[in-house]
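Lab meeting, item 3. Inverse folding demo.
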């Protein structure tokens, strides 16, 4: 075989180096020994670094068996609505929906208990009159003689809960409950007792607002700029009766705008407009500040929902989804939820922040998720930051519109 001269194959080496590598075995062995020692040292250092890094990587932990933590569903159980009561103006709307869902009117609730969380004498007197309008209604005082009831922690409110009962907890400012919402919530809870909390699909709940936005359900609305020459009717709730928004082409809405005037409306921009420049653009799934405190964003959410509500079942169906939305340990607003009494009793006492405890602490503790039932539609009026501390939702006519809808569409069915 023809081969090239060595000096041509290895031109980089001098004759001395070539000779030493090929003709001095002892020196080659020393070089090899030094190389191996360096290699071993480097390998040991690399291994130590790898161990240190791996030791700081968060571990998932051992898989949990949830069977022992899931309450046994009794063959016969009661379903009780718990209303955290504080404001007459809100419950005037909620009342007809509650009665619609009582067993005496063909619903599934055995009873509705109003937990009196207010010291307002007038609101309490009105509540006392309200509970006489249905044999399924009752009032529960959180303190003796209801003294300082408004100062009782939210955690202490859960002391009324008993085993063997399913509880449907409602905020007093739930403004709308779909006809099948409670039945869907109960059915989902029965089918999935492994869930620690099951929530309705709430209009005006920060992360669900983000979801509804991405489902294409938020419509372009802006506040009217000046008061109409003829005041709007307090019995009007239909979006189709609103005039189109009419404003300057360079109109720009501040991130937290001041209301134009008291009891103002939000008006539709029409199909030729996009959502650009409207408050909903500020919504974020993880940063929930805007969804909780931006009154203008929430006004747009409510007006969009009322527009769909006017479309009847077709419009309502657009908000539904058949699967459940798992919050994966994120905080879930408990405006309208289903929970087993056993899960509450087993984990008492509750801290003041019952929402954090139910939807994050207990989820982490038990490994049981808090989920949303996509077919259970309800609307929640406002969080505190949306009407207090600079929130201006009550300068709109949103509350009156929900009242008008309930008065026309719900209350006549349960009178």
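The presenter then showed the designed sequence:
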């Amino acid at each position: 075989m023809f081969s090239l001269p060595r000096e041509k194959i290895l031109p980089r080496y001098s004759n001395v180096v070539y000779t030493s590598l090929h003709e001095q075995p002892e020196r080659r062995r020393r070089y090899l020994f030094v190389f191996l020692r360096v290699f071993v040292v480097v390998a040991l250092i690399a291994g130590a670094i790898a161990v240190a890094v791996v030791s700081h990587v968060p571990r998932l932990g051992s898989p949990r068996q949830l069977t022992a933590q899931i309450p046994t569903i009794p063959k016969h159980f009661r379903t009780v609505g718990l209303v955290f009561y504080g404001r007459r103006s809100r419950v005037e709307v909620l009342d007809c929906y509650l009665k619609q869902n009582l067993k005496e009117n063909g619903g599934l609730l055995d009873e509705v208990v109003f937990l009196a969380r207010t010291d307002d004498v007038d609101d309490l007197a009105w509540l006392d009159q309200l509970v006489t309008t249905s044999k399924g209604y009752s009032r529960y005082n959180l303190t003796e003689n209801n003294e300082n009831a408004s100062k009782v922690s939210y955690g202490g409110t859960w002391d009324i809960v008993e085993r063997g009962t399913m509880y449907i907890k409602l905020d007093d400012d739930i403004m709308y409950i779909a006809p099948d919402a409670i039945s869907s919530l109960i059915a989902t809870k029965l089918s999935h007792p492994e869930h620690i909390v099951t929530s309705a699909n709430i209009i005006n709940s920060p992360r669900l607002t983000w979801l509804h936005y991405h489902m294409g359900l938020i419509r372009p609305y802006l506040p009217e700029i000046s008061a109409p020459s003829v005041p709007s009717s307090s019995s009007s709730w239909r979006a189709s009766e609103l005039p189109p928004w009419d404003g300057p082409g360079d109109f720009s809405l501040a991130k937290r705008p001041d209301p134009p005037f008291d009891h103002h409306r939000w008006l539709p921009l029409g199909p030729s407009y996009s959502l650009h420049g409207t408050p909903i653009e500020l919504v974020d799934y993880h940063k929930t500040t805007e969804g909780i405190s931006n009154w203008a964003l929430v006004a747009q959410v409510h007006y969009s929902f009322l527009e769909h509500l006017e479309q009847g079942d077709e419009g309502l169906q657009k908000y539904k989804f058949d699967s459940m939305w798992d919050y994966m340990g994120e905080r879930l607003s408990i405006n309208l939820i289903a929970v087993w009494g056993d899960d509450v009793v087993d984990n008492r006492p509750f801290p003041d922040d019952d929402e954090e405890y139910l939807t994050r602490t207990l989820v982490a503790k038990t490994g049981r998720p808090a989920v949303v039932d996509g077919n259970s539609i309800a609307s929640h009026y406002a969080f505190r930051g949306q009407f207090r501390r600079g929130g201006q939702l009550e300068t709109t006519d949103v509350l009156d519109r929900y009242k008008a809808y309930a008065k026309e569409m719900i209350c006549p069915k349960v009178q």
